[in-house]
Amino acid sequence: MATRASGGAKTSSSRTGGSAARKPAGSSPRKRTSGTGRGGSARGGSSKGGRGSGRGRPPQKPDPISQAVLGFFKLLFKLYLLAAVAVGSVFRAYGHGARNLDPEHRRDGLGLALLGSSIVLASVTWFRPDGVVTIALEKVVRGGLGVLAMALPVLLALLAWRTLRHPEQHEDTGRVVIGITALGVGVLGILHIAAGVPSPAKDMDGVRESGGVIGWLVSAPLDAALSGWVAVPLLLLLSGFGLLVVTATPIAKVPERVADLWAMATLQGRPEHPSESAGEDAEAPKKRRRKKKTEDGADGDGELEVGEHSRPYDTPLLEDAPKKADRPRRDLADELFEPDPFGAEVPPPAPPPDDEPVDEPAEEHVAGAATVGDEPHEVPDPTPAPRRSEQLPLSSSGEIYVLPDPSALRPGSVSKPRTKANDTVVNALTGVLEQFDIDAQVTGFTRGPTITRYEIELGPAVKVEKVTALTKNIAYAVKSADVRIISPIPGKSAIGVEIPNTDKDIVSLGDVLRSPAATNEHHPMVVGLGKDVEGRTVVA
């Protein structure tokens, strides 16, 4: 037993020694682990402490007074927009061109502001102000614009009318505003020079009765540096430039416009320009030759020579001979006193009748009636039958037709790559996909003038039929019955959903013909068709 006990003690001691011997080898990982745990606990404690400090701060409550003031101004703004829509509807009620205007293009708020400013300025400048605010406003307006302050309410009213009626023509409106500004500045400078260039520091009343502060700012430096004899022509050039901008008249067409205005003023009609008169002179001999040929009837078959109809014509039908009702009527006296139209000799007077009448056969009377004298009467030609209509041959002459300037056509609305309506449709499509638990998402869209194509990309292991089967659900969600699904889009790994736009863009013929696709096409019969769903111009 003692031996076993000692052996057991040795064994236990050896195990203990072995464990003690293995401890230094495994002590280093434990130290690293413990060190890491300490660091982690320290960082964790610091982060928790930071979060705890952040949570400890009470949230700042909004000031009730500021919230009330902000809500009051929002209410006023909404009421103002409601009144602006009502006023704009009244202005657009007349005529047919502005009734169906897209709400996205309307500028009712700006139009109402211009109309209100026009009314306020009219009450200040046209009538005697009696309030503190109106008197101050009258001094500011008259001091700034001088005598032209009387015309400012009218200009603002016209600008408000154009903004409410034709907001889509904002480019033309901006051009007119720039031209009127240049014209007004030039006129104010000339009026200020004519009044002796009064200074606001010495004679403010004289400034109000002339060109105002604006006229003084424009004319005083020019008058001091170049004298009035040079300043006035420069200001006239500025006014003329403003007039050309307002009327959209190029400088090259100024002589033609001046000639037209002079003809209208003198009641002479529109003058003939050299190109037009030359064309008419070249056409007149052809008309005379054609008329002579028709009257003579030399050809008989009614064929026309090549080149007779080199100029455009109104109708392919040939002109018929004038009817009897269109021919000039002859007086009864001319028919009574002129000689026999058939050129026959007048028979001698009949001898006195004998006592006994002599019976003659009826054939002799008829023969005698048919012949008068020695020569028989000429029988008139029968009325020819009306000519049948025929297509006139095209001209083979060397005349070249020149296309008109494409700028004569009005531009359409500016195409918008993204609108609020597109975002609404994207949200609706996303909601339908989430409702039916389909792993797909709307990745983008391509907006056209009338239709937008939305792109849907599928997730892994998702069948295309799951999306194409939701056509009616998509139509219900986007509130449109005209929904078309393209699976897939050519050249893309995506499904296309084409939905009509609620805010359509206007595509004008001028924009199509001015596009590179039309200008690079040199075929004489090119036709502008419009734009496709991707907004590209289509010609044929």
Automatic annotation (TrEMBL):
Residues 320-333 have a biased composition (Basic and acidic residues). Keywords: Cell membrane, Membrane, Transmembrane, Transmembrane helix. It comes from the Bacteria. Residues 36-55 have a biased composition (Gly residues). GO terms for cellular component: plasma membrane. Residues 353-362 have a biased composition (Acidic residues). Its main location: membrane. Residues 403-501 form the FtsK alpha domain. Residues 1-63, 268-419 are annotated as: Disordered. It is a multi-pass membrane protein. It is found in: Cell membrane. Signal peptide: none annotated. Residues 144-258 form the DNA translocase FtsK 4TM region domain. Coiled coil: none annotated. The chain crosses the membrane at residues 65-88, 109-128, 140-164, 176-195, 226-247. This is 4TM region of DNA translocase FtsK/SpoIIIE. It comes from Actinomadura meyerae.
